[in-house]
Amino acid sequence: MIQMNAKWLGEKRFVYRSATGHSLVSDAPAEVGGGDTAPTPMELVLLGLIGCTGVDVTSILLGMREPLAGLEVVAEAERADEHPRIYTKIHLIYLVSGPVNEKKVHRAVRLSESKYCSVSAMLAGATEITHEIQLMD
Fold this sequence. Notes:
Blueprint: E1 5-10, E2 13-17, E3 23-26, H1 41-63, E4 70-79, E5 87-97, H2 102-116, H3 118-124, E6 128-135
Helix pairs in contact: 1-2
């Protein structure tokens, strides 16, 4: 069993402690009574997605012995107007640096989407997730 916690700090701020002992803080925007001092919980979901797929893609490409010099994953998202205000669309942009094989990059992204990224798998039922790849070199 995995156990984590979120402890209220007052107003709309929480400090989270992960199962591995790491901490982070979230807050709400000022327009809903928060202090706007940290990412919102919904932003943390997107950060989890781009982090998860980023780890997958870099691991896969390095495992293929591709000369990857850098990777940035950008998320552009839309949310529902009504509650629950879930993400309805997420577009991921993979900015890839280094003299890598384009076909292998596409394969790595597909594997992350279809097999390895747990966050993507959880969101996929309710959210349309698309992607594009930009080779920077």
